[in-house]
Design goal:
28% strand; 4 helices; alpha+beta; five-stranded mixed β-sheet
Length: 149
């Protein structure tokens, strides 16, 4: 039975994959991955990825709610804010975070920087060049609040 013939149910049988590949025009055949192009990720998406990655780090949070910054709550359940500029395959990131206090701020920033660089690189394939961290608020623990009075 050829491909043009039908079987007893009146349907054509499925074509043999070997016949289809041989008969496919060369311009429709799949090209190697290196020749297919490249995936680009907008800077805003890289910034969002950096926000999510930073929120996964211990003792780091962001501001939630509010309108134009008025009425915003400091919250460890919300993501810190981030901006990104792309220069080819290099991302330049700026993070605005809140940090639990008391902690060693230098160690926290160093660990956060290392973690964000590694994870953003893994997730996007981009190299994180410069990464600036701004600590916009500190959240003292309940034990510290009593000691400050």
């Amino acid at each position: 039975m050829t491909a043009a013939q039908t079987d007893q149910t009146g349907r054509r049988p499925a074509p043999d994959p070997a016949e289809v590949e041989e008969s496919a025009p060369p311009e429709l055949a799949p090209r190697p991955a290196a020749e297919r192009g490249l995936t680009t990720i907008p800077a805003s998406v890289v910034g969002r990825i950096a926000e999510q990655v930073a929120s996964e780090y211990t003792h780091v949070g962001g501001a939630a709610g509010g309108l134009l910054g008025v009425g915003a709550r400091r919250n460890f359940d919300s993501r810190p804010s981030a901006t990104c500029d792309l220069y080819g395959t290099v991302a330049v990131l700026r993070l605005n975070v809140g940090v639990a206090f008391p902690v060693d701020l230098a160690d926290t920033c160093r660990g956060l920087r290392r973690y964000v660089r590694e994870r953003v690189g893994e997730l996007t394939g981009l190299q994180v060049g410069r990464l600036d961290i701004e600590i916009s608020w500190l959240n003292p623990g309940t034990a510290t609040r009593g000691a400050l009075r």
